[in-house]
Amino acid sequence: MESKKNSSQLPYGKALYAYEGKEPGDLKFNKGDIIILRRKVDENWYHGELNGNHGFFPASYIQCIKPLPPAPPQGKALYDFEIKDKDQDKDCLTFTKEATFKVSFSNGDMILENNEE
Predict the structure, then answer these.
(1) DSSP label at 49?
(2) Closest Cα partner for 52 from 35, 39, 69?
(3) Which of 31, 51, 70, 83 has its CA 20 to 30 A from that of 113?
(4) Tens digit of each residue's pLDDT (9 = 90 or more) over 82-94
(5) What number of other Cβ atoms are within 10 A of residue 89's Cβ?
């Protein structure tokens, strides 16, 4: 069983059952192990760490003690966008259609809507 040296700061869970893994890249653990949670893949799977080993495991195999922080919102580009005037558009980002972005805002940020077609 891994010690809880950083578990008070890092998201972690306690194994409810042993998991032997079914695929390469799965994280193997024993009942009672403390697993550091690195990311939630989807509603059914986590990626975590135990004793320096990283891998995937079913969410239903752990009791989440300290959950992961909420993921930042994401956006997906509907169109290509290229900066035409670098001086005027200095705060803009060039991207291509289907690009995915993590979106973060700070208190006081202003979001402008441009309805030009």
Answers:
(1) E
(2) 35
(3) 70
(4) 777 777 666 677 7
(5) 13
**Contact in structure between 73 and 43 (CB atoms under 8 Å):** no
- In angstroms, the CA 36 to CA 58 distance is 14
Torsion angle of alpha carbons 45, 46, 49, 55, nearest 10°? 40
Tally of domains within the chain: 2
Residue 81 lies in a domain: yes
Domain interval for residue 19: 12-66
Q: What is the CATH classification number for the domain harbouring 56?
A: 2.30.30.40
Residue 64 exposure: Cα atoms within 13 Å on the Cβ side: 19
d(CA 7, CA 22): 27
More confident residue, 12 or 71: 12
